[in-house]
Design goal:
Layout: E1 2-5, H1 14-23, E2 31-36, H2 50-53, E3 56-60, E4 75-78, H3 90-103
Parallel strand pairs: 1-2, 1-4, 2-3
Length: 104
């Protein structure tokens, strides 16, 4: 299983679009996306792809992003761009620490 931590459509972000391209070519039972709360980012008017969105959790928010449970044996793949985590790098570093604790 791969857990991508990234933006994802309808969030307007090239990283999220790239993540969507990746998961479209991976069997649906082999991936999930942990994305940001849709209220924290600009979103497009595009309709969500319900086939893909069953595997997407729009749960990360600021100021304390909190990862959901991550099963052991999962590859956690962070996709991010400059500024995605807000003005403070602490958010990203804290999320990395959370992932490490969840996987150990």
């Amino acid at each position: 299983m791969i857990s991508f931590v990234s933006t994802f459509p309808p969030i307007i972000c090239g990283i999220g679009t790239y993540t969507k391209y990746l998961v479209e070519n991976i069997p649906q039972d082999k991936w999930r996306v942990i994305s940001f709360d849709l209220n924290n980012f600009s979103t497009s008017e595009d309709k969500r792809d319900n086939r893909l969105n069953r595997n997407v959790s729009y749960c990360l928010s600021f100021p304390q992003p909190c990862l959901p449970e991550i099963p052991r044996g999962t590859l956690v793949w962070f996709q991010h761009a400059f500024g995605m985590w807000g003005d403070k790098n602490d958010y990203f570093l804290e999320t990395l620490k959370q992932a490490k604790k969840l996987l150990l």
